[in-house]
Amino acid sequence: MSEARAFRRIGVLVSGRGSNLQALIDSIGRSELQATIAVVISNVPGVAALDRAAAAGIETLVMPHRAWPSREAYDEALAAALRAKGCELVCLAGFMRRLSARFLDVFAGPVLNVHPSLLPAFPGLDGPGQALAHGVKVAGCTVHLVTPELDAGPIVAQAAVPVLPADTHDTLAARILVEEHRLFPWAVGRVLDGGWRIDGRRFLDA
Ligand code: GRF
Fold first, then answer.
1. Is 115 a catalytic residue?
2. Which of 79, 102, 119, 180 could connect to 142 by a Cys-Cys bridge, CB 3.0–4.6 Å?
3. Which residue's alpha carbon is nearest to atom 14 within ligand 1?
């Protein structure tokens, strides 16, 4: 256990494109984020994120959720797999599946999610689309600790971008994504460094 901690081993859960996974890989490659990605696990076979992990020499696992009889059983197996790899923190990098309290109980370490809106505005699917439809003038992204409630855990970091009059869904989503790629590795490092506490909903320096 102490050896695993020394290497700041993290696990990354993915379901798709994997650009945030790539941002983590690249940040580690530049020695900005001091961590080792012990495993990348996808609930969807054949996704680009798995190719990105393999190209970086990172171990991958495919765990299709339908192969387990219930959400609880799946979440327990997922948490056990991450623990078996010595992960002390889990990143949700486009993992398109809600995690139950059972996952958080069994994993028992920090779980971080990156979300493409300034929470608590626009939780759930398609943050950029919701922001455009609502007509807000500022959008952005949030990295938060995962709790059983969707997109509602303590906020570790946020970054804002303007919404421009000519924006389409794609231009706004791309502007937000640039900030996600910067913010997520920074927030992972912040949480791994320790020296923080939770006070109510607030993530604060200890
Ligand atoms: C990102 O927009 C992230 O905020 C959201 O899902 C998307 C994942 O993109 N949770 P990628 O797979 O990291 O490219």
1. yes
2. 119
3. 19
**How is the chain split into domains, by residue range?**
1-109, 115-142+149-206
Atom of ligand 1 at shortest distance to CA of 22? 13
**Nearest ligand 1 atom to alpha carbon 14:** 12
Of ligand 1's listed atoms, the one at least distance from the Cα of 141 is: 4
pLDDT number for residue 5:
43
Q: Which fold has domain 115-142+149-206?
A: Rossmann fold (3.40.50)
Q: One fold for both 1-109 and 115-142+149-206?
A: yes
Q: Which residues contact 13 (CB under 8 A, 6 or more apart)?
A: 40, 41, 42, 43, 78, 90, 91, 92, 93, 95
Whole-number pLDDT of residue 2: 44
**Average confidence (pLDDT) per 10 residues, the chain, 206 residues:** 63 98 98 97 98 98 97 97 98 96 96 98 98 98 96 97 98 98 98 97 96
Q: In the structure, which protein residues have their CB atom closer than 6 angstroms to any atom of ligand 1? A: 16-20, 49, 93-94, 114-116, 180
Residue nearest to atom 5 of ligand 1 (CA): 94
pTM: 0.96
Residues near 61 by beta carbon (within 8 Å), at least 6 away in sequence: 39, 40, 41, 42, 81
In terms of CATH, what superfamily is 1-109?
Formyl transferase, N-terminal domain (3.40.50.170)
Query: Which pLDDT score is estimated for 6?
Result: 53
Residue-level pLDDT at 7 = 77
